[in-house]
Design brief:
Layout (H helix, E strand, L loop, with lengths): L2 H13 L8 H30 L4 H6 L4 H34 L5 H8 L1 H4 L2 H12 L6 H6 L8 H12 L1 H14 L2 H8 L4 H30 L2 H7 L9 H10 L3 H39 L1
């Protein structure tokens, strides 16, 4: 091959070089854009929340948590999360197991319904619960006759929270279970293991990281949900206000320090969730690399 042909081949290869070999200017521009976007829309608002919470010192910040309404909001938020997350855990396991392991009519419909809360506004979801369980709703008169109160009470808040959070566990587990298949479960059943023992010894170890990851996301959304809870709660201070609703009330009353103090609590819970998520991803990656070395 002549020198001219070799030069042409070299220029052609340079023209179609991989993305990872782009010029340093292009790489730095993309990285700078990503960092700037995160700084403006994520880090800056978070920093403002912390600065405003401590703007008058540590004592006003701590005093915000001695308010009975704030304590009631914290207790209610934890209670709602403690009820909604296990319910979504049970649903996510059942739904993902059914979709990944069985074939049945309406399977695609079930998958679509799982994604419904992602496409429906939380405010609309809360309004639907009011129309169904409210005093003038579909079941409202019957519930009132039997002394059952759902809307403007804790049960309505729990139901609304379950609705907006139930896709998280299922959506983490469905692709994971589909990828793993059902060969190992079938082998365990063939060897005489019961269905429950097969789940504990075969299925659960294979999905534990995805399960924990889904539970973390579900819990974070449950504690921070505002739209649906705002509609069904009735904003009864000290009774049906969660932390996000209490933050709104305090901010509207120009009690900025107390509002941002509770916001810092929510942000702290979110950061803890993020840290646990990162830890789980690191442990999962470490486990996968260990398996690869053993094989």
């Amino acid at each position: 091959m002549s020198d001219i042909a070799i030069a042409r081949v070299g220029r052609r290869r340079a023209k179609y070089r991989p993305v990872t070999e782009d010029s340093p200017l292009a790489r730095y521009a993309l990285i700078a854009t990503a960092v700037l976007f995160l700084a403006l829309f994520l880090l800056a608002p978070l920093a403002i929340v912390f600065l405003d919470a401590f703007s008058k010192g540590i004592e006003p910040f701590l005093a915000a948590f001695h308010d009975p309404d704030a304590l009631a909001a914290i207790r209610l938020t934890l209670l709602v999360a403690a009820l909604a997350v296990p319910a979504n855990l049970a649903f996510g396991l059942a739904a993902s197991w059914s979709i990944a392991k069985f074939s049945f009519p309406g399977k695609s419909v079930l998958i679509t319904l799982i994604d419904l809360p992602f496409s429906v506004s939380p405010v609309v979801a809360g309004l639907v619960y009011v129309l169904v369980f409210g005093g003038q709703g579909l079941f409202g008169p019957w519930l009132a006759e039997h002394g059952v109160r759902i809307i403007f009470a804790v049960p309505g808040i729990v139901l609304a929270t379950i609705f907006v959070t139930f896709p998280f566990v299922a959506r983490e587990l469905i692709p994971l279970m589909q990828e793993q298949g059902k060969v190992e479960e079938e082998a365990a059943l063939t060897l005489g293991a019961s269905g429950f023992r097969t789940f504990l010894t075969v299925t659960l170890p294979n999905i534990k990281w995805g399960l924990l990851y889904g539970v973390l996301l579900c819990n974070a959304r449950a504690m921070g949900e505002f739209g649906a809870v705002s509609v069904v709660s009735g904003h009864i201070r000290g009774l049906t206000d969660t932390i996000p609703l209490q933050v709104e009330i305090l901010y509207n009353e120009y009690n900025n320090v107390a509002a941002f103090a509770l916001a810092v609590l929510l942000a702290g819970l979110a950061l803890i969730t993020l840290g646990l998520k990162t830890l789980l991803e690191w442990r999962h990656a470490d486990e996968l690399s260990g398996r690869a070395r053993r094989h």
